[in-house]
Amino acid sequence: MALIQWWVGALVLACGLVLAAAAWWLPGRRRGRPSGVPVAASQRLRRLPSWQRVVREEARRRRVGVAAVAMVLTGLAILASRFVMVSDDSEALRQRDVVLCMDVSGSMVPVVEDVLDTYLALVGELTEERIGFVMFDANAVTGFALTDDHDEVANRLAAARDELLAEEPVAGTTAPASGSSLVGDGLASCVQHFDRPDEERARTLVLATDNLVSGNSIYSLTEATELAVGGDVMVFAVTPRGTPAGAVAELRGQTARTHGDVLTLDPSASTNTAVISRAVAKQERVALLATAQERSFDVTAPGVLLALLGLGLGVAVERRRP
């Protein structure tokens, strides 16, 4: 929910306050001399119980009248501000895509289990996302395409862990003539797995790599990051402990361009997965705001009810005036 035109509502309130101030101040300025009829012994009259009762009733009516005007003014301000809510159907739409992008080169073999445990923990943190899985070395292969079946995701990741723990190369990922651990090409392939480029969606890529490139890649890491930036893909890199500082610094510089970061691989700590899941949710909110005009509706009831209640209160006060 949000106030789309809050400044219009603020202007309505400001105008109301200006008019109220003018109504209180100007009549006194126009009167050159006191008005009314002189009455002798007015102090004794003011002490009469009947007089004091009339004064209290009049003061009460004026306070209620001021409250009624304030309610009407506030209701009009809410209407002018366009109080908007996103429909339940829109909130149920899956606006978040996450691609798990895993380097399966020889240097990553000792941490394969830790990487997949981190991925599984992240899947447990996420709820409504579509999740995909890609493995790469010299070439990239799809573990599974983007899906919102999280049970299937967990099963496929567990199966991938068993396969990788066998320490055999993943079929289709090796190409000795090209080299190994071609991170730029792997990242570029993973970015291209986001299958709805024309939709306003939150797109997050979790890249597990040590960034130890061996060979000639088609895409450099910088060029692959350009693809991510162009596709509004936020990249988080997860690196094993002991990764050379230069490789980490390069990853940090490139992921920062996508508003992501570099995290150290530690599946026993929930910090990493929590950081990524919070970033995914924040990115989704940006996507929803970008399409709010298509999936939102004005809520007029609060403003209308408040204005009508103020009008009714004002009418009731006037009708009770003697």
From TrEMBL:
Annotated transmembrane regions: 6-26, 64-85
Keyword terms: Membrane, Transmembrane, Transmembrane helix
Source organism superkingdom: Bacteria
InterPro entries, per the entry: VWF_A, vWFA_dom_sf
Domain VWFA per the UniProt entry, residue ranges: 97-238
Name listed for the protein in its UniProt record: VWA domain-containing protein
Species of the source: Nocardioides jishulii
